[in-house]
Amino acid sequence: MWLSSTGQTLNTKLIKYTNALWKLMQTCHFSLSHSSDGLLVARYHKQNLYYEESFDTPPKLELITFDTPFAGKFGLIICFDILFHDPTVALVKMGVRQLVFPTAWMNELPLLDSIQFHRALSLGANVTVLSSNLRNDQLIMTGSGIYTPFSATFHHAVKGDPEEGQLLVATVPVLGPVGVNNVTESLSPVAAESDHCHTDGCADSPSPPSPGSSYSTFIGTMMHDPFKFVLIKEAEGNLTVCDGKFCCHLQYKWTAHDEGKELYAMGAFAGTHTFNGRYALQVCAVVRCAGLEASSCGQKVEEAESKMDFLMEATFQTDYVYPSVLVNRMAIEQPDKLEKAAGGRVAMKHSNLSGGLITACLYGRMYQLDNE
């Protein structure tokens, strides 16, 4: 797939990246970038392998970048890399604001669909992500996009669509470098350039539950992890669900909802994910359940009709929190407001959904605990 970025001078350049042949190698392992005159300018070997027994992890971490005359520096990452500190966050800490991202991404709802998480990384890290996924329906691979902190151009096939490629082209802003040593700055959106709010911007934050408050919680499996859930039953209200000391708060109001057709729940998880990879998480998520039974909450859902205005927040023990809103027939929306405040508090506010809500999520990565 070819992705293009147009510079302010209107001189269009193409960034081409190629994967190892999937049909021959069953992998997505290296990335090449060429200049407009065909010269090889960067080569990167994947750091985080995903059951790729034919390859070894590089003996030394490769933080590979290349410079362009139209949009500054680009960094290279591949597939599973996007879930880990190295090389993804390491590149951002170096001041890289554009990431080239070829992938063979197997979608896993309700939290890690391709367009959902790749867009979330763009928002949470305040970078542009050029994401090119393979299309293979048998392996549940679809979903590519051009994501900036302010916009998203994407394609995601749904059931019945022909299995063919798509060309995505978008005009994107040239993101300037940020303070290399200022992690908070580099991973927080800039209020003057977007609709994100800061400090006191999300004024309607739900209050923490009073000592006498109680919620009927249950444990359900989502993404192979034991989430603590609370059902969302009322027309509007404030809910809290905790997994240990990590608590998620939700203030919501349904704008369209038939409780006889769709059931929703809010879940919290704090722990180490160990299925098909090992990584530490703190996650808050509102999800549509697959059926009308609580036991179906956390299962895969691709369509929804219910809409809500909401404010979700939690206090995370990490600076790396990736927000997403996924709606009916696999479309993503830009939250109205995002706030990162001192002490780890993160809030996401959104209203006027264009489609039924599938998932609203704050996905926190506890990179420092991955090896514990």
Automatic annotation (TrEMBL):
Reactions the enzyme catalyzes: biocytin + H2O = biotin + L-lysine
Pfam hit, one: Vanin_C
Q: Which domain of life is it from?
A: Eukaryota
Q: Give the CN hydrolase domain ranges.
A: 1-174
Enzyme Commission number(s) = 3.5.1.12
Q: Which UniProt keywords apply?
A: Hydrolase
Instruction: State the Gene Ontology terms under molecular function.
Output: biotinidase activity
Q: What does this protein do?
A: Catalytic release of biotin from biocytin, the product of biotin-dependent carboxylases degradation.
Q: Which PANTHER family match?
A: BIOTINIDASE, BIOTINIDASE-RELATED
Give the family, as the similarity comment puts it.
Belongs to the carbon-nitrogen hydrolase superfamily. BTD/VNN family.
**Record-given protein name:** Biotinidase
The species is Poecilia formosa (Amazon molly)
